[in-house]
Design brief:
- The structure is a single chain.
- By secondary structure, this protein is of the alpha+beta class.
- The protein has a domain of 71 residues.
- 56% of the residues lie in helices and 20% in strands.
- It is built from eleven helices and seven strands.
- The strands form two sheets. It has a four-stranded antiparallel β-sheet with strand order 1-2-7-6. A three-stranded antiparallel β-sheet has the order 3-5-4.
- Strand 6 and strand 7 form a beta hairpin.
- The longest helix is centred in the N-terminal third of the chain and has 18 residues.
- The chain is globular.
Length: 204
């Protein structure tokens, strides 16, 4: 699953439950288990399987439902350039996750160190000047949250391949409108291309 999908998935399950109602949510959950042997949480992280069950339930209307649900989490700003799309984070829990990551000085330094180019973890720690123990923990949290994504490898002197990581965002903008904090992000072109969820958004 792409980093962008992992990030959005954190809000997707609760939004589906809220919008489709408890009964439909439970029916979808049962069908997911029957067809794919997975629960809702795993299906949200593997959106293709969730998509197939939604299509089984709602037919051609599934795309509209998916778009409606996703729009409550993120809104893609109109742009002719696919590689320069800005996304407004509508879901407050997701916005809070991003703000908290930026509010943590170490995490902010980690993200900044890989905005322009992918790096291996040891280089990230060195550039960010973060102790190894806490640094590894914070990097892993950012990876799990989808804010850092694997991109390429580096080969060590003894021939081992080590994964490089890059920020899922090229830019992050924080604005205040009428006492509300608006978080906007500009994902990398690759993260949009690899995101099943964003492909649904872009197709409408």
């Amino acid at each position: 699953m792409s980093g962008l999908d992992r990030l959005i998935a954190k809000s997707l399950e609760s939004t589906i439950r809220e919008n489709l109602g408890e009964q439909t949510y439970e029916k979808l959950g049962r069908r997911l288990f029957e067809r794919h042997g997975i629960g809702f949480t795993q299906a949200v992280e593997d959106f293709g399987k969730l998509d197939s069950v939604l299509r089984e339930f709602f037919g051609g209307g599934a795309e509209g439902i998916e778009k409606q649900i996703i729009d409550k989490i993120v809104i893609l700003e109109e742009s002719k350039r696919m590689d320069k799309k800005w996304i407004t984070i509508e879901d407050q829990s997701l916005a809070r996750l991003i703000l908290e990551s930026l509010g943590d000085e170490d995490k902010k330094n980690i993200i900044n160190s890989v905005i322009d180019e992918p790096r291996i973890i040891s280089d990230i720690l060195e550039i960010s000047k973060i102790p190894q123990t806490s640094g590894y923990r914070k990097i892993n949290t950012l990876i799990q949250n989808g804010m850092l994504i694997p991109q390429g490898f580096s080969t060590t002197h003894d021939g081992k391949k080590v994964t490089k990581y890059k920020s899922v965002f090229e830019n992050i903008s924080i604005e205040i409108e009428k006492n509300k904090v608006i978080v906007k992000v500009q994902p990398t072109q690759e993260s949009i291309k690899n995101s099943h969820i964003m492909q649904i958004v872009c197709s409408h």
